[in-house]
Write a structure and sequence with these properties.
Layout (H helix, E strand, L loop, with lengths): L3 E9 L2 E4 L5 E7 L6 E7 L1 E2 L2 E2 L11 E8 L2 E15 L3 E7 L12 E3 L2 E2 H12 L4 E4 L4 E7 L4 H12 L2 E5 L4 E5 L7 E6 L6 E2 L2 E3 L6 E8 L5 E7 L4 E7 L1 E2 L4 H13 L2 E3 L1 E4 L9 E6 L8 E13 L2 E13 L2
Parallel strand pairs: 12-15, 16-25, 19-21
Antiparallel strand pairs: 1-2, 1-7, 3-4, 3-26, 4-9, 5-6, 7-8, 8-9, 10-13, 11-13, 13-22, 14-15, 17-24, 18-23, 19-20, 24-27, 25-26, 26-27
Helix pairs in contact: 1-2
């Protein structure tokens, strides 16, 4: 039997504070979302004394969460306090990763021609030059307009139009931009008979999921350019993007096609804090009952929860990467 341990530290004005009590910690991470979040729930009162954290913790305070067993702790979340919410019985500290810093306005500009990397670098230069851009999926734009927008708005538009995986590594101060399902940051092994508590997975084969993806872009002269990928007669998906360069439309179409039609698992598995896993990991799945489904799958999202009731990781799987 393992003892569950945790550490939550806040840093404000150069002073570090450590929580002495919690009711629950919930961390939600996904490559499908621009932002990773952590919700730290505190009892409203301890020993009939109302907790007062407002003088030490506020919006923008740095936060680091570590979890583990038997005093062996691993950093699970690094970010900033976005809000503190009080209800009838508890306090909730709502936190975001480095995207929190990018919820500020940026200057209006028309960039032409440009690329996704140049647009992202412009945001970093304006908002926080201490962050480094890590990008291996560069889409060219004939024109990109930023008007009355925040850094968050711009990153959201880039993610929606290009289907890129865009996320922050707050600890390393990095903004990542990658093609979907290609960035692999680690490996993990799950056995349905050993370290999986519960499974809601449903296996989907590509042969049963016919999809046709059409990407349409309007160039600077007003002409509509398009590119089609997939199977004619399948479910038709039309994506309308900005003034993306015609030679990059296939990248976007094929990225969406992978999301929609590859061999994959839909659903999730529930496990524990061990093994450690993050989105972008490759998860090797073994199932003695259904060996034909064995393979390596892309980890799309992870929800980690710790409370008095115990701990749980819910791991959402995606496309099949290999059969081994």
């Amino acid at each position: 039997m393992f003892d569950i341990n945790w550490s939550v530290k806040f840093k404000n004005a150069g002073v570090t504070y450590r929580l002495e009590t919690i009711a629950a910690i919930d961390i939600d991470e996904s490559v499908d979302n621009l932002v990773d979040t952590a919700t730290i729930t505190l009892p409203e009162a301890v020993m009939n004394q109302v907790l007062n954290i407002g003088d030490r913790i506020g919006r923008g305070t740095e936060v680091a969460v570590q979890l583990g067993y038997d005093e062996v702790l691993i950093t699970e979340f690094v970010g900033y306090v976005k809000d503190i919410v009080t209800n009838d019985s508890s306090l909730k500290i709502l936190c975001e990763d480095a995207l929190f810093l990018f919820r500020v306005g940026v200057k209006d500009i028309e960039m032409k021609p440009t690329t996704m990397a140049k647009i992202a670098q412009s945001l970093l230069s304006q908002i926080n030059p201490g962050y480094k851009l890590v990008c291996d999926y560069d889409i060219a734009y004939e024109k990109f307009v930023i008007h009355q927008a925040t850094g968050f708005d711009v990153l959201k538009k880039l993610a929606e139009e290009t289907k890129a995986n865009i996320y922050f590594n707050t600890d390393k101060k990095e903004l990542h931009i990658h093609p979907p399902y290609l960035e692999k940051s680690g490996e993990v092994i799950y056995s349905m008979q050993v370290n999986v508590e519960k499974s809601s997975l449903e296996y989907k084969e590509a042969i049963d999921r016919k999809v046709e993806v059409i990407v349409e872009s309007t160039n600077v002269k007003g002409k509509v350019e398009s590119y089609t990928a997939g199977t004619t007669g399948g479910e038709k998906i039309t994506l309308k993007v900005g003034s993306v360069s015609p030679q990059d439309l296939p990248k976007i179409a094929n990225a969406e096609l992978i999301r929609r039609s590859a061999d994959m698992y839909e659903g999730s598995i529930d496990g524990w804090l061990i093994p450690f896993v993050k989105p972008t990991y490759s998860a090797k799945i073994k199932d003695e009952d259904y060996p034909e489904k064995d393979g390596t799958y892309y980890v799309v999202g992870v929800v980690t929860s710790v409370s008095e009731a115990g701990c749980k990781r819910t791991v959402k799987l995606g496309v099949k990467l290999s059969v081994k």
